[in-house]
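Researcher: Sequence of Methyltransferase, FkbM family follows. Predict its structure.
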Amino acid sequence: MSFPARPIAFILAASNHGTMIVNRNDYNVKSSGDVYGVGQDILQTSSFSASEVNFVLVLLTWRRHYFGDGVFAIDGGANIGVHTIEWGRHMHGWGRVLGFEAQEILYYALAGNIAINNCLNARARLAALGEHCGELIIPQPDYFAHASFGSFELRQRENTEDIGQSISYEPSRGVTVPMVSIDSLDLQRVDLIKLDVESMEVEVLRGARKTLQNIKPILLIEIFKSDEAAIRALVDELGYRCFSAGMNLVAVHTEDPVLQHLSHRDGVTYLD
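Model: Prediction complete. Tokens:
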């Protein structure tokens, strides 16, 4: 029996995060020649965003210290699950993670990475986060060709990032995925929400207003493609204090005792 020749996109990598399903094509090359992408970082350095991961692990530990076991964290825009896996492993026996990923193919890798790393306190959902519940038609990248899939924007903007391959935003060429708001989850407890949703951060926060008012979770929000002023205004109104952290904002409610462990000096946010 002969087998058809076909390319391989996803492989297993023995990373610092554990064994990970990684797309070897997950990279883009900037005009400067710099190469970036989640898969690229893992395959070249064995890890992705290690300092950010460690920062969040400390935040989760402080939340447990002040609020007890049962810590719950949302990974919005989970990609293949580096944060989801690390949080789940760290919180074994005392916390849970829910990761949202809207790209179906990446969702399969996310779910696989949860299982292969035995992070059974983590769950994955194939859905986009938004301001309202409904559906969203998203384009389909070619996962057999190189691109920074973590930089892929579900909605086209005037200055949509070039991820390394041409993307068609024609609805007829897209697929429909569920879209949910955080408020619709009707959560009783949530300690931390990470949002890395490629320019949709503001609307996701609007869809979480009730949750932020009532439960006051810590927020880690990517601002690279979003309106930072709008994000700051929204969370300031709800009683949060913001700290700059690279491409992210860390927002902690003024009533949260974890706030005393954060400081900002010389342009750097510290967490003791």
